[in-house]
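Good morning C.,

I know you're traveling, so I'll keep this short. The sequence:
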Amino acid sequence: MTNKMLTKATAIDRFGRENKDLLERRFGLPNIGKRFDGENFNPTVDRIARAINYYGFEVRDENIVEIPDTDLGSGNPLCFKPFPPAVQAMIKSLEEELMYRYPYTEGSDEIRKQLLEYVEREGFVNTSPYSYDDIDEKGLSVHNITFSVSTSVLFNQIISIISKPKDVILVTGPNYGLFTIRAERAGAEVEVLELQEEDNFLVNPEKLAETIDQINNSLQLAYHRRQGYVPRVVAFLNANPNNPTGKVMGQNEYDLLYKIADVCNKRGVFVIDDLVYRDISYDKDNIALPIATIPGMFRNTISLFGLSKSYSMASLRAGFVVADELIIRAIINKTFQEMDSAPAIIGVALAGAYNATDERYQAYEKYFTELRGEYKYRLNLIKALVNGITASAPEYRTKISETIYKAVGPDAEKVLTGLPLVDFPKNLEPESGFFAILDFTKLKGMKFRDKEKDLYIVIRDEAELLNFFYATSRTRFLVGESISWPDDTMLVGRVNYAIEEEKLIKAFLNMHNAILMLDQNKDDYIIRKNRYEDQEQMAHIKVDGWKNAYDRIISASYLNSLNYEEQAERYKASFEEYKDYVFVAVRGDEVLGYSCFDPTPNVDEFDSELVSLYIKPTEIGKGIGTELFIATRKQMISLGKKNMIIWCLSDNINAIRFYEKLGGKIVKTKDAQIGDKNYTEYGFYFHLN
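The tokens, ready to paste straight into the viewer:
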């Protein structure tokens, strides 16, 4: 008897069907991913994820391979020589040591000893040590340290170790958006402590305490009747210096740091002290102060160090963590279970950069004097590019002017005047790092005509801001939603001023030219959810809209039967049921148009519907319909919808042209009875993303 093998599909075809998201080729950032527990990101983190995905993938076009864009959202530090002692240590290790041995999961004790001596020289102290024999006079040992492939990996491990499902990680806003996503992917929830201009964008300990208490109280109420564990705030991420504000809390802010640490310590909340930008604090006499140097705070603090930013070694991916032994043991266990061990060479590099020898500190002083000087120059360059040459310090102006003339020639005069209508937020001059927050709010409401697509881009939100600059100058950056900017009425962007000088200057010239192309006559209407008092005007718009659009299409007897009062009563009666599903465009108290939508999944393959879109006859042709459509689309996306259908009478030529212009494709037809007659309707399909 012959055995026959039944093949239903090839392995790769089956894999593709089971992983449809991989069928789309991506350029730019890979897929951000989902939570490990299968749950959706909470709304705060979902907004960050969508904004980062938009910047890293969606805003880019199909020409990206042939025509590279200018990425001002990069996280790369200044192109500078790597820290020499770290390089020398790696060379020595490769030349003198045999590489046949597998490294220990926790790393070499000799390496950890050098890192320990460094942090102790920097002031780390444990005033409540364990009683093990190897604990030194600072209350520490090599078992308080381990290293891995980047602080990002360590952060992921820390979150999964210290949190249980529904526990909260508190982060500042602004923040490093990818850390918020990673925290939620690991199963925790993320909440944001908004930093305020009135506090100079530093953490306010009183607001920190209030936020922790409010979250814990809410969780207690939500879970008090359930048996078992009650979720709580388990950690506060303290980026010092802050990414992206560049704010530093150093020795001059000792009292502030003590209060932050004390608030967390008394509430059983770990401080994750992210110190990767520490050594490029501009003021060498007030570099970021680790909280673990404050007596009594070590055991409640998890400190992260890395080579990526300050030591110009981002491509090496090397970081180490200092914490209580229990935390370190858990990290080592997780490393062994997930990746066996970190490469030994990164430990060698870390010990070369972070050790307590006088030779290292002498090399550090020489290296960082030069590097900080370069970053201070770049800070003054970005000031000139945004606010004009007179905004930079006098000692930098000649060099900046010469550099700009060399980069763009005759256009230098334009660049030296600054970026029109753009500024820095108040109280937010960077004190470290290489990121600047720019305020584009004055561009809000301005229009740009995209001739290729035959439509207007109206800058109403940060997605349109990115679309505008990409369409006009192929320039992109991270927007405020990506970094949890605390004021959602503003349009802001985070730009990297450490990228190549010529590329940076040309990008700002292109952005300058783009802004000059804007129509600065802003629309005098807004789009908002409808209100009860809008219903009568909406009824008039619908009745007038039908009589105007369907004259000679629908029977005159039916159109004549339409009644303002009856329509208004129907709208009022259904207001409570549908109030969250209607947007109106209003000028003052006057309703100019409205859209009604349904986010409930249909029985077909469409998971949302634009039910109706009406514009006041006197306002047709002014772009209001497009704006209502865009607002509806964004709302559907925020609700997790992927596509939308819109039905339109087959004889309504104007509506058909409108939906086709917006990208709709006719995919269905159906019969609709209006009055005593049947009419054909087209179903327009829109892929929302």
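Safe travels,
E.
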